[in-house]
Amino acid sequence: MNDYIVKAIALQDQVRAYAIRSTDTVSEAQRRHDTLPTSSVALGRSMTAGAILGAMMKGDEKLTIKIDGGGPIGTILVDANAKGEVRGYVSYPRTHFEVSESGKLDVKRAVGTNGTLSVSKDVGLSQPFVGQVAIETGEIGDDFTSYIMNSEQTPSSVGVGVLVNEDNTIRAAGGFIIQLLPGTSEETIRFIENRLLQIPSISTMVKEGLTPEKMLEEVLGAENVSVLETMPVQFQCQCSRDRIARAIISLGQQEIQDMIVEDGKAEAQCHFCNEYYLFTKADLEKLLEETK
């Protein structure tokens, strides 16, 4: 099964709903960054929510999420777009704590609660739209709920979950975002609130292999959900050797000449995907020629 997002409408068009299977996407991030379990869960939850927020956008629009709660994991950074492409990393991927008193990995301790969650949306204008909220729980899902409510003025519920195997690989990842549309009746609001109290945890649903469609049915009732479309999701980085080469060229002739004389090479590594790029002396000399 490949990762994908479901977009749906529910309860007589009063509710907009999204759900995602993100297991392969989070697995790729874990593999590339060699994250330990607590870091894997924090990054995976953030990428899962980010992918859904990206799916709410259109065309070439994209967004960047920055979570900095002051905890030992450092900053979590996620990029996502309207095409189902998402990438992310954490400052300290080897951060890990044993399970908390609740029996779950202590994500709150790793992320911290003394900082902010910000979302910068590039919709093709001269300046991006930026929304920011204080981190309340450090558990990621609740903090995204707070962000959507306070920055976008849309009552929402965000559920994200990641399960890690004993060998540190990702067993399952997924989540949902439920949003109330203007004019939602009090009866519908109470219905959803009661369902959210009764449903299995998102981690349980992910563990049991529920598809995104089935997750929404658990939350909203099978008879109430109408799927509008599905979209594939994947870990996708925008870095490339050509982009790095253009960046080197943009430094100018003198800077490139200094690289040739002093180091005889240039090296670059992408934070988002950990790809390593080496430009030899001969490579640099060719780039130098392109600047003339």
Automatic annotation (TrEMBL):
Coiled coil feature spans: none
Keyword Disulfide bond: yes
Disulphide-bonded residues: C237-C239, C270-C273
Principal subcellular localisation of the protein: cytoplasm
One Gene Ontology term of the molecular function aspect: protein folding chaperone
Subcellular location per the Swiss-Prot or TrEMBL entry: Cytoplasm
Keywords: Chaperone, Cytoplasm, Disulfide bond, Redox-active center, Zinc
Protein name: 33 kDa chaperonin
Annotated organism of origin: Psychrobacillus lasiicapitis
Highest classification ranks of the organism: Bacteria, Bacillati, Bacillota, Bacilli, Bacillales
